[in-house]
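Run log // design_07
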């Protein structure tokens, strides 16, 4: 079995302990939620608007409001991003280690 070496040059040769491997920075946590949700929202937006015209959708849902096609794409993307962000965030919450949940 080989040791893992993921540290800077000054710590080279020192294997990581299990506690070191579990430390995740807040930036890494945010990236782990934002990037997959952004990617999924982008794909969902492309697939959805390949079949649905946002101006026609606007006429069906809010006929009194004149929404430009670009605004329809933008609003749709952010709605998809909100849904996929919620899903990714919920997954991150469920994957927290027990010690973090218990406050240890």
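design_07 sequence
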């Amino acid at each position: 079995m080989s040791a893992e070496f993921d540290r800077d040059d000054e710590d080279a040769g020192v294997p990581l302990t299990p506690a070191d491997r579990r430390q995740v920075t807040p930036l890494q946590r945010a990236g782990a939620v934002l990037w997959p949700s952004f990617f999924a929202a982008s794909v969902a937006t492309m697939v959805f608007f390949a079949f649905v015209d946002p101006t026609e959708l606007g006429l069906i849902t809010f006929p009194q409001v004149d929404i430009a096609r670009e605004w329809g794409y933008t609003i749709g993307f952010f709605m998809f991003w909100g849904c996929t962000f919620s899903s990714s965030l919920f997954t991150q919450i469920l994957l927290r280690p027990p010690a973090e949940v218990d406050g240890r």
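The helical segments are 18-22, 26-51, 54-61, 69-94, 98-102.
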